[in-house]
UniProtKB/TrEMBL annotation:
This is Sulfotransferase. The keyword Secreted does not apply. Residues 82-318 form the Sulfotransferase domain. It comes from the Eukaryota. Gene3D superfamilies: P-loop containing nucleotide triphosphate hydrolases (3.40.50.300). It is an enzyme of class 2 (transferase). Disulfide bonds join C280-C292. It comes from Cyprinus carpio. Keywords: Disulfide bond, Glycoprotein, Golgi apparatus, Membrane, Signal-anchor, Transferase, Transmembrane, Transmembrane helix. Its EC number is 2.8.2.-. The chain crosses the membrane at residues 18-36. 3'-phosphoadenylyl sulfate binds at K91, G92, G93, T94, R95, R172, S180, K297, G298, R299, T300, H301. The active site is at K91 (for sulfotransferase activity).
Length: 334
């Protein structure tokens, strides 16, 4: 009799459990339905369910650690041909300029000198592109090869590749640049003749050997003319090598303007190292520590006969004046 009286109670408990399970099933189905985006299906659309199943499988199979924003940036990064080139000049400050520009988040610069357009042209653009750093959409890719400026075949080759590319030239007093160039040469081959003997074809007559590489590079007007045969002056920006040392933030500001970038690199990024005689970075790319250029930068120059220096200044004067007119800038070299 007791068992009979308890039967209605057991039945009620069973019904309550069934109702609870049914309700829970409806809630789960509704949530799944919402996740699959089927709340307002178009009539006759039979592909939606299959598309949503595919999307669901991709979501479920994706690693938990993947960050959506970072993966999107990674997917959009690619190796592209440069938008800008630092084409010269050797011993003018090109390495310093490149290192300074790498502070800018919208610049991706190749550290090595690829020499595509002067030495390795036969390797092709595929090889060239493979050397470039990956860049996001909107970032500027650039490289530097100072020998480009003085190589006769280079302007035409670059123009064939890109007519709109922006060109940057760092120039420096050609006499000081020549002595710096010679200083680098003797650091590698100390047994070469003196600067004074190499600078003249005939010392007694004072005939300058303008084909000697350290002096030939300083004939800026001659080299610039080849570039102006292919590119308008508006596509070429001249960096004042001396001011890059005395006022790096000012020169970098003008370069950023030329590249149509926001002026992010300012004087807060630099400090002057009195020992080296060069500005250094307070925080270079990828580091939280101050950084100066390597030991090869800021070498002590050998003493050159003052009469030779004066002869070179007289030799370069008409070339410099012509270069000022062509570039539209007065660099005020002595």
């Amino acid at each position: 009799m007791a068992a009979f009286n308890n039967a209605p109670l057991d039945l009620r408990r069973l019904l309550q459990r069934l109702v609870t399970m049914f309700s829970f099933s409806i809630i789960c189905a509704s949530i799944l339905y919402l996740l699959l985006g089927r709340c307002e299906p178009d009539a006759g659309d039979s592909s939606g369910w299959n598309n949503n199943k595919t999307a669901l499988r991709e979501i479920l199979s994706a690693p938990d650690s993947v960050d959506a924003n970072s993966s999107e940036k990674e997917w959009s990064a690619s190796r592209r041909l440069p938008h800008a080139l630092i084409i010269g000049v050797k011993k003018g400050g090109t390495r310093a300029l490149l290192e300074f520009l790498r502070l800018h988040p919208d610049i991706r610069a190749l550290g090595a000198e690829p020499h595509l357009f002067d030495r390795h042209y036969a390797r092709g653009l595929g090889w060239y592109r493979s050397m470039m750093p990956k860049a996001l959409t909107g970032q500027i890719v650039m490289e530097k090869t100072p020998r480009y400026f003085v190589s006769p075949e280079t302007p035409g080759r670059i123009h064939t590749t890109s007519r709109d590319i922006k060109l940057i030239v760092v120039v420096r007093d050609p006499v000081t640049r020549a002595v710096s160039d010679y200083t680098q040469i003797i650091s590698k081959t100390p047994d070469i003749p003196s600067f004074e003997s190499l600078a003249f074809r005939n010392r007694s007559t004072g005939q300058i050997d303008s084909l000697w590489s350290p002096l030939y590079i300083g004939l800026y007007a001659r080299h610039l003319q080849r570039w102006l045969d292919y590119f308008p002056l508006a596509q070429i920006h001249f960096v004042h090598g001396e001011r890059l040392i005395s006022d790096p933030a000012g020169e970098l500001g003008r370069v950023q303007d030329f590249l149509s970038l926001q002026r992010i690199i300012t004087d807060k990024h630099f400090y002057f190292n009195k020992t080296k005689g060069f500005p250094c970075l307070k925080k270079p790319e990828g580091s939280s520590r101050p950084h100066c250029l390597g030991k090869t930068k800021g070498r002590t120059h050998p003493r050159i006969d003052p009469e030779v220096i004066q002869s070179l200044r007289e030799f370069y004067q008409p070339h410099n004046l012509k270069f000022y007119r062509m570039a539209g800038m007065d660099f005020r070299w002595q």
